[in-house]
Every structure is written in C-alpha cells, then in structure tokens.
Amino acid sequence: MSLGRDHIDKGYKRERRVVRGSRREAERALRLFVNELESGLRADKKLVFADFAKTWLEERRQSGNYSVNTIKKNEYMLRVLMPYLGDVRLLDIDSMTISSLFVKLRSDRGGKPLSGTTAHDVFVMLNHMMKDAAHHRLIASNPCEVVKAPKTDTEEKEALSRDEARRMIELLSEGEPDANRTGALLALCAGLRREEVCGLRWKDFDAEAGCVRIAQAVTEHDKAPKPPKSKASVRAIPLDPDTAKRLGEWKERQKAELQDIGVEQVDSTPVVSNGVGEYMIPSNLSRWFRGFVAQNSFGRCGLHKLRHTFGTLLVASGIDLVTVAHLMGHSDTAMVSKVYAHVVPDNVVRATKALGGVLYGNASTTAVVMPFSSLGMSA
To answer: Which residues contact 316 (CB under 8 A, 6 or more apart)?
Structure first.
C-alpha cells in the first residue's frame, strides 16, 4: 500500500503486510490494516519492548541532556523490567499488564521485592518511555496514564536538632581546616548539595561580601563539571561570619599545601579539592563523612542530612518559604513545604502559644520567632 511521496529519499513510502487465508480474511485484514495506518500508528507489530528500550536509552544517551548518573539509573531500571517485558510486543503492553507487573515487582521478585520508592521510580521511567512511544505513533496511547503509580515508602528525613547541629559545627571547626571538613561545613551552614560542594571553586567565593555562588556541580560519573541541577540551583548564598572566616583560613592553608607539591592555587582551583588540587569525587567526600560521623557518635547521618538540617532549621526559625526555596536552590516552595516544613516540636509549642495570645489577649503568650542568627548561620 502506498502512503504517498517520501520527500527525503525521493521515492514513495509503502507499507506491506502478508496475510494467509481466504479472500474474505484477506479483505478483513486489509480493512484493519488501512484503519491502523489512518490512525497514525506505525505498522511495526513485531517491535518488542527490549528493542524499543535499547533505542530509547541510546537516544537519551546521545542527546546530551542527561547526566551519566541518570543514564546509569535508567540502565538499572531497565534491567528490572526486562525479565517481564523484554519479549513482549510494544502493542501488547496495556494498563492491565503494567498493573500486574508492579504488583509482581512489589510482592515477589526472586525473594527480593522492590521497595515502594524504587518501584515508583521504575514506573516514572516506564511512563516516560510509553509516552515517547505514543508520541512516535508506535502505540495508540500511553497505557501508564490510567495506572496508579506505586506509593513511595522512603522514611521521612530527619534533621539534626539544634544542639546536634551546633555540636557538628564545633567538631568540624576543630583544629586546622581541611578539604573534607570544609565541604561538610558548607553542606550544613550553606545548604549545598554534595555535587555543589565538590564543584565550588575559589572564584565562586567572595570573601569581601561573605558569600558563595553556586555555578557548577561535579557528579559521580561525569568527567567534567556541569551546570547545577536546575536554573534555580544557580544562586548566591550569604555565609555567616564564622563560616566565611573558616573558608578564608582553609584557602590559605590549601594554598600552602599545594605549593609544597608544586601546584599553584588559582581562581579555578576547587575549594574542596583532592590531594593534588583537582576536583574531589563526591563519593570520597561521603566516605570520609561516614567515618567522621561514626567516630563522633552521630548515629545515622549521611552528608545530605546536613543540607536537610539547613533547610529544616531555616523553616523552624520562621524564615519564609520563598527565601528558603531560593537558598536551597528550588524553583518554588513546593519541595520546601513538603520536605523541610514538617512538624518541628518548637513550632508546635509556639503555634499554640500564639493562638493563646490571640484568644486571651495575653501578650506574654505570644509566640516569639527565633532569629536565624541564633543558629550560628545567616540568611
């Protein structure tokens, strides 16, 4: 069947399908074939999920729009799906197939079912894939649209208490500064992501203004620094005087240490550098911090918990959500209200005191908002 002129190859586009059977069966097959072509679907009924997934992943890899880390996550999630969908024709994957798949993944996967959070992430990727397949007319519609995504079951993040945060700062500030301690201090006192900490250069530190500017990030797998997570992540963060002073002290010490090995400290030198003045791999900073936490009896505390503490204490201190979102590098307040503005014991007490002040007109019960400077940090 001719589908008209091919303006690229200067020929005619044709689709062919072989039907075995009676004339009546052939005529019925022809009508179905015409309806299929007129619907806009590409007539590739043999395309299986594994082949589509391979092409889909390669297109993402070649586009340059996704980090190496994201591609590796996609590869892992596709390995999860392949035993169940790999040989299934793309046209046969419907909403019931997807619903049954995720029940299987959550309940029985060789004795190791997926967590709700991982299953949710796999579903989100599959949704993107099937949406792309529908966009390219490989399927009529995205079957994931009518399937409810698995619920995440990640435990709510807990922040360090004020006393724990102060103790952490005291320990990180003991003795001579070094790259690792400086990195952890920036995560706690400036709310930097691990990749932002490792991407910070001395040109990004304004000692006179007492602030740092987030302009790039270093991820685990990319060979060179890249732009931060989003446009909102490009931001300037004022530092409290103590943190700014500590950063200046580390700059002088790092300069001397690099001179000893014949390396010059320049504007592009990473603030949190490895032993030869190059960018530190983020996992190395995390590894050091795990040892530091264990040595100082902080319990379960990853490096990201320091950033979480920064955001939580900002909200608990009465800082408005718009300002917190800016300092954290979020494009809006949704993430702040969801992740950082969870119930804080002090907030509960102040809230009821404030209500008492309104109802009884008693000024002594009015809530007092703790200034942010009392945390040893500045907005």
So the answer is: 344, 346, 347, 370
